[in-house]
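FW: tagging you since you asked about this chain on Friday. Here's the raw sequence from the shared folder, copied in full. Didn't touch anything.
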Amino acid sequence: MDKIKNYLLQRFEQVFVFMVLLATASINFFVPYKLAFLNFYFLPIILGGYYLGKRLATLGAVFCILVVTGFVYLRPEIFFIDSSDVVIYSQVAVWGGFLILSGVVVGSLHERLMEKVSSARELNDELQLRQEELGKANASLKDHSENLEQRVKERTVELEQSRNAIESMKQKVEGALYATMDPVVVNLMIEGKLQNEKRDVSLLFSDLVNFTTYSENHPPEVVIGDLNRYLQDMEPIILAYHGHLDKYMGDGIMCEFGAPVSFPTFRTMSVIAAMKMQQQIRKLEHPWEMRIGIATGPAFTGIIGNKRKTYTAIGDSVNLAARLEKACTPGGVLIDRNTYDGVAYCVEARKLRKLGLRQSDLEKTTQLMGLLECVEQSPKDGDMHYRIACLNLELNEPHEAILHLEQALELDPGNTSFKVLYAEAGLKAKEMERISVKGKKQRIEAYEVLGFKDPFCNREKIPARLRQELSDAAGMIRIPNDLILPVEVLEDSIGRSSVVAALSYMLAGGMRLSEKEKLDIANAAFLSDIGKEAVPAHLLNRSNELAGSELDIFRQYPVEGSHILRKLGYENPAMIEIVMHTHECWNGSGYPGGLSGERIPLGSRIVAVADAYDTLTSQRIYRQPWARHAALGEIRRWTELGVFDPSVVAVLSNLMDEQ
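HL: got it, structure written out here
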């Protein structure tokens, strides 16, 4: 059937003509009523209009009209019975007009339809083409997406490998830098904050005694191993007290305190670090003894070198520190006058009358030291001051002689011997100003460090009757002093923790607490300042009051201290709670949302009062200590303002008042 249909459609014009001729011949020859069958011609014309178009349908209609007209003309009688020719021709004309009109209308409609169909087909073809393109694009996109995901994974792996490589290279570079330079210096260099400048610093030189002899008598691997172990023990101490480890000089060490990062207490840091280094080398039984020299003064600090750079200090202070180290006795620490002035409050030191002291002066020196101890017990003995001044002049120390003679003249203004010796000391002092020592127009005053001063021997702070009792209370604390000493040195308050702890113990006893409670309070007081390591050093040593964000930073150190204690393994909840609330005020004004009154742990209230008393009666780099009665008066004033617990302050007043 499909073949027949396709054949007819392809040859429709011939079929149409044949059907018209066949229908005309059949109607005119076989059908008696010709006019009735003229409407039959509408069928082929309509079909022609549909299949052949308007033009061919019209031509077909004209052809049909001509054929019928020809029949009408030849045999008019076959179309109508009893009708005139005019009627027949009129009917045929009307019929022919409608026939043509049918062909035109149907053909026009068909053409329009075909145009729309053609347009629709084109659109459909285009749509199909677009759909195919879209399918291809979608497939390509899908493939690209899958490939992109894979490429992203591959790129991610590459980037991760690159990042790891960069991180590894960074670590290697940092490791190389940290191995040759102080980490603080490296960080300052990276941040662009490292400057070449002139500043006051403390220089420390250390050296091992008889290291050359030791190295000659031992295999290289033993010597290097022992030396590395020695340096490994020394480095943490230097870094703990914020020293810059400048360089190793064989078995020697050179480091600066106060550079590159400035600390107001750099002199104390240097001396405490030196003392701890000597303690460590004795404790660990190294095969050598060590000498340490420290000098303080202006020096040029910065990066020197071309390709191989290093941060160092240069100047007279560096040379002086090296000379002091050479003059130091094995196992000792020798410091200059500038360094001693910064640590005299907490360090016992013996002044060396002169570097390279002659044997003939040893007796005078020993005698002088004995007189100095005696004069501390009898400061109003003018004759003793006179005898000390005589020994000072014999040892070429006119300035010290003048100081003692001035005190002697205050006690006995009319004594002629005092006046004559005072004039002689003045003349000798002027002469000494021009005596050069190795090219220098000044003498070297050196002090041999003996150890820490007993903080309970301060008669202005601690009454004599309480000294032994407070010292015994401090002895009950088993916490290593090295835990809090690096924090104390930041504030130049060496010995403060022991005093606050012992005083807190006695205040707790005055409030009739149990022995366990007293020990908990004393231990908490000893560690109450440990959080200060998180406070910038310039805030700890600020002479004026803190305000705003600086005060907020400072107020956080008790909380930070409680966190540090937990990290260190202290799990006593009572002790940690005491540390956390040591700066709460009795009236609740200490911290926003803080505790007040009886809600503040009693131990915290006790430590707060002991802390305030020690702070006021202790020397700071920005002020002198307060007298005991003035400190107690200030604490009572603060109590009236609601800062301290009145009951604790009452116990302190009873404890410290002279009897």
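FW: Residues 359-443 form a domain with the Serine Threonine Protein Phosphatase 5, Tetratricopeptide repeat fold (CATH 1.25.40.10).
HL: agreed, and The chain has four domains: 12-137, 194-352, 359-443, 455-656.
FW: great, closing this out.
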